[in-house]
Specification:
The complex is a heterodimer. Chain A is an alpha/beta fold. Chain A has 8 helices and 10 strands. The chains are: A alpha/beta, B mainly alpha.
Chain lengths: 258, 246
């Protein structure tokens, strides 16, 4: 990514503090944390379970209230965050009583200010390989297809920032690889900014421009790694020497903490 | 129809044993034979179906209707407010410990032989399964989906109508399937304890006359109403929850 400094920032954390409160007192998760993601970037966050990866997302979408600092979306500080980003959760979370089309179009129903129209929905359904499945119910679809509907729903939130929380973790290994390639194609066409949580190092290396690594909790800064790969990428690019070294390196870091 | 084959066989065997037993005992006011009951229904068809049936059906319809409204209002209030839930839920349970048969004569004192004493009995028996199952249905709405709605900026109203109501429907129908046959029982009990007409009343009158077949004839009609109502609910459920058909 050349000239990243000049690029607009899609997302920025400035000195963000966050702690959970329970009976024992406060459990700090984020301490004075700074983070920035350039517009149009693909950034992954990897860390062990319980390290606070998902907390970052919950802060951005407004499900948790930060205890200090500020969060900027597209360089604007937002107080009332719900509805400002597209969120794709770990499980596909499709409503079984709604058809594919009705599930995907949920943001259009809920957000008053959503500027997307039904025509866009139709075009995207086709682009996402879901044409002909509009009137099917989720239980009639394969796991990969359900995740595509879920991703379509996140896209239809109309935001340029998409948060993907381990979206492929429930898929079988083969489907997962195809979905990763598919996601990259979509990302390149939509020109959105993607923040991607995963615990799969290969997945992070294959998809991202940069990887943030969470090694300890509470964290202040995230260790940042640039992925030395050109785009477009194919799965076999992961076999390149410098990528393989990077992967082993990362693995070692987590091994210490198991 | 094939699904019912075995139960039809079972019922036929049962009726044959009953018929043989009744003929052996040969005391019609204690154990009337099925054939005798069938003939009685035919003989009394005008009185049973045109005079008593409409009155019982009115009790069932009004009782079930009020139970539905009451149950849905109670379940919704408990879903909206934790305080209301804590206030209402114990009262709800207590209402089910009341021995209705002991209490029904009091309803007769209050409402006389009018339709309302029977409607009250029907309501007390049927509102409980509707309320509890609808409330459980509301609570079955997935927490993750709720959060997803919040991230999309959904209002409380949207959350209720687009998430909680659809989530509650399967459970609501289960409650309704329990309540519907019970409404038939409720109306019959109500009529047994004090009425001037209705299938339950008719059955009791035949009892005082030691007319065994006459006691059973209205009971058979009541049971058929129950089956019919239950089947209608199942069909309605299949239609509304068509997404469950795979």
């Amino acid at each position: 990514m050349n000239g990243e400094q000049n690029k607009k920032l899609a997302l920025q954390f400035k000195n963000v503090d966050f702690h959970y409160r329970n009976a024992a007192g406060e459990i700090p998760i984020l301490k004075n944390m700074n983070l920035s993601v350039a517009d149009g970037g693909f950034v992954s966050i990897i860390g062990a379970s319980g390290s606070g990866k998902s907390t970052i997302f919950r802060l951005i979408v407004g499900l948790e209230e930060r205890t200090g600092g500020s969060i900027y979306l597209n360089e604007k500080q937002v107080a009332d965050r719900p509805g400002k980003v597209g969120y794709m959760p770990q499980q596909d979370l499709l409503m079984p009583w709604r058809t594919v089309l009705q599930n995907a179009a949920l943001p259009l129903e809920l957000q008053k200010e959503n500027h997307l129209d039904r025509g866009t929905v139709q075009n995207l359904l086709e682009a996402f390989g879901l044409k002909g499945y509009e009137d099917k119910y989720p239980h009639e679809l394969s796991g990969g297809m359900r995740q595509r509907v879920s991703f379509l729903r996140a896209t239809l939130s109309g935001s340029n920032v998409l948060l993907l929380d381990e979206p492929f973790s429930a898929l079988d290994a083969m489907t997962k690889l195809f979905m990763q390639e598919w996601l990259l194609e979509q990302w390149e066409q939509q020109q959105s900014t993607i923040l991607f949580i995963t615990h799969d190092i290969s997945e992070a290396l294959f998809l991202s421009d940069r990887i943030f690594v969470i090694t300890e909790t509470p964290f202040t800064t995230l260790k940042e790694i640039e992925v030395p790969l050109e785009r477009p990428r194919r799965q076999h690019d992961l076999d390149k020497k410098e990528v393989a070294e990077l992967k082993n390196n990362l693995l070692e870091q987590f091994r210490m903490r198991v | 129809m094939k699904n019912y084959l075995y139960s039809i066989i079972l019922i036929t065997i049962f009726l044959f044993i009953w018929e043989a037993g009744a003929r052996f005992v040969d005391t019609s006011f204690i154990l009337p034979a099925p054939a005798e009951i069938a003939m009685k229904i035919w003989e009394l068809k005008a009185e049973l179906l045109l005079h008593h049936l409409p009155i019982t059906l009115a009790v069932i319809a009004i009782g079930l209707g009020i139970s539905l409204v009451l149950g849905i209002i109670l379940a919704t209030s408990m879903n909206i407010s934790k305080t209301l839930e804590q206030a209402i839920y114990p009262v709800l349970i207590t209402s089910q410990t009341i021995p209705i048969i002991a209490l029904a004569p009091i309803f007769v004192l209050w409402f006389g032989y009018s339709i309302w004493s029977k409607v009250i009995v029907t309501i007390i028996i049927t509102f409980f399964p509707i309320t509890v199952s609808t409330f459980d249905g509301f609570r079955s709405a997935s927490k993750e989906l709720k959060e997803l709605f919040q991230t999309l900026g959904a209002s409380k109203r949207q959350l209720f109508f687009k998430l909680e109501v659809p989530s509650a429907l399967p459970s609501f129908f289960s409650g309704l399937k329990v309540a519907v046959p019970m409404s038939v029982i409720g109306s019959a009990i109500g009529e047994w304890l004090g009425a001037q007409a209705g299938l339950g009343y008719f059955s009791r009158r035949m009892m005082t006359q030691f007319n065994g077949a006459g006691v059973f004839a209205p009971i058979v009609v009541l049971s058929l109403i129950g089956i019919l109502l239950f089947t209608s609910v199942v069909l309605l459920e299949k239609f509304i929850l068509k997404w469950r058909r795979s």
